[in-house]
Specification:
The complex is a heterodimer of chains A (85) and B (391). With 85 residues, chain A is α+β, with helices and mostly antiparallel strands. In chain A, 24% of the residues lie in helices and 22% in strands. In chain B, the strands form 7 sheets. In chain B, strands 3-2-1-28 form a 4-stranded antiparallel β-sheet, with no helix packed on it. The chains are: A alpha+beta (85), B mainly beta (391).
Chain lengths: 85, 391
């Protein structure tokens, strides 16, 4: 599946779009971690919670947890919250 | 041979080159001093936009840097450089709490706050303190980290740590990780809030070390409970590891082991200045000398320089008396805050002192505080200042 990467994480992927595979969001993130070591912990904490300022959308719908099922045609978008200062 | 000896003696009289490591809310900077500590070359920003809580050079090899980092949106990590910051690599396994059992709510590290290198004999060992409070260790120079000791999951410690509401505004912190240079199993740690604790068995068991420390008055807080204690910064004297100094939310203290009772030495500070503050610095060779940077702790606790007149205060007699050291600093209308990690010393003779303000100014003194000069202005909010000596 296609995964869109926010600018803050492109130091890992070196591009804004990549591919990942997995039957769930958790599996897809594990695949991303395999490809780009370190990226998962910046997005998901050690309790497997999506971090406070990160949003993940699957086909435009916000995913709430890593159990979200995925299939190969889904589009996953990782977004950093527009907050800060 | 005689010529060699003369050359060596000549070098000793010259200051060793100092590197000042500045960690800020928006990145890190390295300032390279000349031999006289008069001119400084800025190297940075490193990690522009990342919050760097602490940047420390490994004194055991003089070239490995560790940076505790996060951005506002991403999870925390530790970056490591083995070439004085020319290149950086992320830790393969940053500090992280253990996964909670199913059905329980586990904690997540928000940021690594404090880094302490292990003893000279314990090569590649580092310790890290986090927010929320956690203690971690690396045994491979900062590449991988694991929870260290019982603290992170012990129910009693968890009670003393409290919740986010019990800590400092940007999160409760475990800090002041001190390893006894004579014994790698002997540790001190401090928690804001949660008190001061000591282990003599490598972190297997801990005992509280809060006797003699005051707690905030007027609310009926029980001073025997660690949860009410807020140590801001603890330092061990390099020249006498049995002497500790502490800047606390409620005053300045000294502890001479084996005693377990802290003595409030800040009572001898001028009344109009008080003994509230964040950092405390000890002299590298004289255990009677320490420096503090007082903050206004009256009424609503502005935590700015009292009366807008910043100054460092020094004791040369273990806290019996204090001397104001403000020459060169603004005379008035300077409402500075200096955080607990943002003041330090070098090991030269005379000792150089350094501090950074939350308004982004970096100051230093080449003569143990008698005269101050500004190294840099207009930096982001300064979180930590450390020094290192370069060969």
């Amino acid at each position: 599946m296609k995964v869109l990467i926010p600018s803050a994480l492109r130091s890992y992927t070196e591009r804004g779009e990549t591919e990942a595979s997995g039957a769930t969001l958790g599996a897809a993130l594990a695949d991303l971690e395999h490809q780009y070591p370190g990226i998962r912990f910046r997005v998901v904490d050690e309790q497997d919670r999506i971090r406070r300022h990160i949003r993940i959308f699957v086909n435009g719908e916000q995913a709430r947890d890593l159990a979200q099922p995925l299939n190969g045609t889904d589009e996953v978008i990782i977004v950093q919250a527009l907050s800060g200062g | 041979m005689a010529r060699k000896a003369r050359k060596s003696a000549g070098r000793k009289q010259t200051s060793r080159r100092v590197l000042v490591l500045v960690a800020t809310r928006k990145g890190a900077w390295l300032y390279h001093g000349d031999g006289a500590r008069k001119s400084w070359r800025a190297d940075g920003p490193h990690f522009l936009g990342h919050t760097i809580s602490h940047l420390v050079l490994d004194p055991r090899d003089g070239r490995t840097l560790l940076a505790a980092a996060k951005t506002g949106h991403l999870g925390p990590t530790v970056f490591r450089s083995t070439d004085l910051g020319r290149t950086w690599k992320e830790a393969a396994q940053p500090p992280a709490f253990a996964k909670a059992p199913e059905g329980q709510t586990g904690r997540a590290v928000d940021h690594t706050f404090w880094l302490t290198p292990g003893r000279a004999a314990d090569r590649d060992v580092w310790y890290a303190g986090t927010s929320p409070q956690g203690l971690f260790r690396s045994r491979d120079g900062g590449v991988t980290w694991e929870p260290f000791s019982i603290i992170n999951d012990d129910p009693q410690f968890r009670e003393w740590m409290g919740t986010v509401q019990d800590g400092t505004p940007d999160g409760p912190k475990l800090h002041s990780i001190i390893v006894d240079p004579r014994d790698g199993r002997h540790f001190y740690i401090a928690m804001s809030g949660g008190g001061v604790h000591e282990s003599v068995d490598g972190g297997r068991t801990w005992k509280t070390l809060i006797q003699g420390l005051d707690v905030v008055e007027g609310f009926g807080f029980d001073a025997s409970k660690p949860t009410f204690h807020d140590p801001h910064c603890i330092r061990m004297c390099p020249s006498n590891p049995d002497r500790l100094y502490q800047q606390n939310h409620c005053g300045i203290y000294r502890l001479d082991r084996p005693s377990d009772t802290w003595t409030r030495i800040g009572r001898t500070m001028p009344k109009q200045v008080g003994d509230i503050g964040f950092p405390l610095v000890v002299h590298p060779r004289d255990a009677d000398t320490a420096w503090v940077f007082p903050m206004d702790g009256t009424q609503v606790w502005p935590r700015t320089s009292p009366d807008g007149k910043p100054a460092v205060y020094a004791t040369r007699n273990g806290g019996k008396s204090w001397q104001r050291l403000g020459a060169g600093l603004p005379a008035n209308q300077a409402w500075w805050t200096v955080k607990r990690q943002a003041m330090t010393a070098d090991a030269n003779d005379a000792v150089g002192l350094y501090f950074g303000t939350t308004s982004g100014e970096l100051w230093m003194s080449r003569d143990e505080g008698r005269r101050w000069s500004c190294i840099a202005r207009h930096l982001p909010e300064i979180y930590a200042v450390e020094t290192a000596e370069l060969a």
